[in-house]
Amino acid sequence: MFKILLLNLPRLDSIKFNREGRCQQRVSSFNYLMVPISLLYIASLLRKNSFCVELIDYMAESRPTLGKLIRRIEKINPQLIITPLTTPTFSNDVRFIERIKNKVATHISAIGLHPTIMAQTTLETSSLDSVIRGEPELTSLKLAEALENNLNLKGTEGLSYKDHNRIFHNPDRPLIEDLDILPFPAREMLNLSRYRLPTNGKKYTFIVPSRGCWHNCIFCQTKNYYGNKLRLRSMDNIMMELREVTGKLKIRNIAILSDNFTLEREFVKSFCEKILENNFKIEWMANSRVDAVDYPLLALMKKSGCCGIAYGVESGNQRILDSAKKGITVGQTRKAFYWSNKAGIRTLAQAILGLPGETRDTAKETLKLLCEINPDFVQFNCAVPFPGTELYELASKNKWLEDAGWDRFELNYSVISTEKISAQGIMRLRSNLYFKFYFRFKYLKKILSNLRFYHITGAAKFFVGWVLNIHRPRLKSWRL
């Protein structure tokens, strides 16, 4: 029987990274360990088509070692390995892949944004046999079918591959118009107790109700992976999955994983109403733009179990928002947080430092706005010019890029130095703003008054992780 291994690789420097869709960032207080939902979707589709599938999420292992990993792969003896790669983990991942390739005779393919956008160089600089570009499920299935039947890979849309030391790029595969055709993720293949929310310590899972976003933020990679058209699952299909998650798996904490959950107001309204109609006793959280909510919608979200919402605030300076093509106003940010607080939904404000036009004064404007709206949490990210974004093209054109490897292309680092502020200056600002926001009497009073919301152990881990994360994170070098 044709065996397939879906493998989420570890890092030997003990830093855990999330590799999920456009989320490519280290695990921290804000970025909890993500359920590898893309691999679960692929696994479910492959199993539906009678393939023998194994799944290993080594990122969830407590003490991963290369030797242990190799022995497990040799025991499985797969004919195909599919693994996600990201920009900040790329150099580590390709070293792992090379060692696996030297030990096990198998076809190895990669999914993810980095291999999608950098398919040519990814194949040139690694031992990979192929790269699955863009939305991975159907291409993974077609690749498996072609390999099982010894077919030429030339007919597999969405695939880039090597053949006799030459690299070929097949035409793109069209995006899946009807997302309902995908079977529910094979969650039973994972030990779900390893994936827990930092605030309450409870296990959770992802629900993916939509893909795609039509906005054009210069720092975002969404359109390169899931496209700029919003695609929605049917509400009946989503409710069937929720019934499986809450019934069979006994999971009551749901994280909505969408490129932008609230883009279609009526869809969100229907989602909330159906949860109430079906009497699902769940708590859920999602992301949103500040211009895509109002108080009636937020009140309904809260009633249906929404306990948290993450907003992309980005900056408190309107010129920076406009140059980043965010399409929001500072006034809309104020309203969204006022309404969310009134509705009783806890908020995470995500800010980006180092966007074009950033100075110390504009960063102070961002801090002033955040102190005014007083969210439950703030995450200060650095503006990262990921490949395929307009920001990458802009930084390259203006020679803003620091001489840094892919390892530094993560949200905790700045790799952009403009005429107005250096990358090092952005890093210092980031640490400074974290302290100035969190160590305020108004904020500490808010947290202490809501302490019962937090799981004590989770809260302690959250605080320690936050303190470690505000400083420049170290990336240890290692050898295989």
Helix-strand blueprint:
Blueprint: E1 3-8, E2 17-20, E3 23-26, H1 37-48, E4 52-57, H2 66-76, E5 80-84, H3 90-103, E6 107-111, H4 113-117, H5 119-124, E7 130-132, H6 137-148, E8 159-163, E9 166-169, E10 205-207, E11 210-211, H7 222-225, E12 231-232, H8 235-247, E13 253-256, H9 265-277, E14 283-288, H10 295-303, E15 306-314, H11 318-323, H12 330-343, E16 346-353, H13 360-373, E17 377-382, H14 390-397, H15 423-438, H16 441-449, H17 456-470
Parallel strand pairs: 1-4, 1-5, 5-6, 6-7, 10-13, 13-14, 14-15, 15-16, 16-17
Antiparallel strand pairs: 2-3, 7-8, 8-9, 11-12
Structure, described:
This protein has 480 residues and is α/β, with parallel strands linked by helices. The chain folds into two domains: 3-162, Rossmann fold (3-Layer(aba) Sandwich), CATH 3.40.50; 196-470, tm_1862 like domain (pyruvate-formate lyase- activating enzyme, Alpha-Beta Horseshoe), CATH 3.80.30.20. It is built from 17 helices and 17 strands. It has helices at 37-48, 66-76, 90-103, 113-117, 119-124, 137-148, 222-225, 235-247, 265-277, 295-303, 318-323, 330-343, 360-373, 390-397, 423-438, 441-449, 456-470, and strands at residues 3-8, 17-20, 23-26, 52-57, 80-84, 107-111, 130-132, 159-163, 166-169, 205-207, 210-211, 231-232, 253-256, 283-288, 306-314, 346-353, 377-382. A seven-stranded mixed beta sheet has the order 4-1-5-6-7-8-9. A six-stranded parallel beta sheet has the order 10-13-14-15-16-17. It has a two-stranded antiparallel ribbon with strand order 2-3. Helix 9 packs parallel to helix 10. The radius of gyration is 22 Å and the shape is globular.
